[in-house]
Amino acid sequence: MNFTETFKAREHEGSTYQPGLRKFLREHTDLKTLVESGSGCSTIFMTMALEERGVNGKIYSLDPSPWCAYTVEHPFITNIRKKSEDAMVDLYLQDHPWDFFLHDGNHDIFQQSYDIWMGFALLRPGGWIWCDDYTWAEHHAWKRFAEQHRLPVHDFGSASGVQKPDTKEAMHPSMVAAYSEYMKARFKVEADKWHAAGNKDSSAFSHQV
Fold it and tell me: Which helix (H) or strand (E) holds 79?
């Protein structure tokens, strides 16, 4: 079965933002190195966009245990079975900078905060970062991130995106490991405070370790 047939068999699963993601990537042919936390339906639509536009790219999917319970296979895709905080540094040292980052994995306050701050730092100037389900649990990590960076937010269905300014460089590889450890410590403190105030993470990702 070729990938078009795979896409048609799974297309019905993508209705919240995936069609917009497909169209966006099809039109933005300069976005070639794509990284996502989470995998599955989004991966299918991203891969289809690369096939349709005729400009090759590569997709790195960081996910220890796909929520959808299936793995998308394609020459464009590298599946990394690790949590994003355990994979992003090594991946960046291997292949940098990134053109596009999608957060669509665990949307708990720690994970979403870490993913979007790290993903943004590792983008090239003019790159894009998207965040799906950013209203889950009402911790507003995405909203606070965009406000702190003073970036205009673009809506794409259930996802939201910002473009990195052309004046802001990607992080130097020598700084990435230390920055990652700082982000982990920072957002663990924030998550602990949020939980201590009586807030709870979404049960949707309780199976992930």
Answer: strand 77-80
For residues 39 and 57, what is the distance between their CA atoms, to the nearest angstrom? 17
Sheet holding 33-37, edge to edge: 77-80, 58-62, 33-37, 98-103, 123-132, 159-163, 154-156
Q: Tens digit of pLDDT for each residue in 67-120?
A: 887 889 999 999 999 999 999 999 999 999 999 999 998 889 999 999 999 999
Closest CA to 133 of 141, 144, 121: 141
DSSP 203: G
Amino acid at the residue 153: V
List b or e across 137-166, with b for residues whose CB sees 16 or more CB atoms inside 10 angstroms: bebebbeebbeeeebeeeebebbbbbebee
Q: What is the pTM of this model?
A: 0.94
Q: Looking at the chain, list the stretches that DSSP marks H as alpha helix, in order from N- to C-terminal side.
A: 3-10, 18-27, 41-53, 84-94, 109-121, 141-149, 173-196
Residue 146 corresponds to which amino acid?
A
Domains defined for the chain, CATH in brackets: 3-197 (3.40.50.150)
Residue 115's nearest CA partner among 37, 54, 26, 168 is 37
Prior bond of 97 cis (ω within 30°): yes
DSSP bridge pairs for 79? 61
